[in-house]
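hey can u check if this looks right to u? its 182 residues, i copy pasted from the old doc so theres a chance i mangled smth
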Amino acid sequence: MRSGFRRTLRISGGTFTGLPALKRDHFLRAGNAYLIARSMWPDQRTAYAVFLVVACETLKPSGKRYDQANVYDVVASLITPSEGELLRGLSVQPQRVRSKHLHRGELASDELLPMLIHNPFKDPSFDEMIGELSRVSRVCLIEWLRCRGDYTLVRLPRSKRTRAASICATAAAVWRWIIGRS
């Protein structure tokens, strides 16, 4: 699969060199995140997933109004909305893995487990997420280049469960803050 991606980028090379300087820089930032991700495989599987998400999010259009867009919105925009929904519907959600790892250093995979014990039982949901994320990140990079970075961002509706969970988390944080102050 990697050789197909490289071949596509070589074919798209003329497209890349024909981009204005700002667009080339935009694409290079996404490509850099993608290469960082690849350098982490297979030893740091969570970081690999995180940098694939970052590579996709880097493809967002520039501007403050796009700051709240996430990987699902980019995938929905560059591939299809159903692909964005499929990614968000995985039992291990890439955006959540990204946030927990970057903000709290949490690992979503069992990277440290082999150092501690041998566990023959493995949850396949992380591997499923990695497979989908690997595929869509490559497709997003190629599609962004194909459309020369000019696309309309599709914002997927946030699920009510996500909003409710966010409200509960905020309320819990405020409550812990209040308790801590007394």
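The chain has one domain: 2-181.
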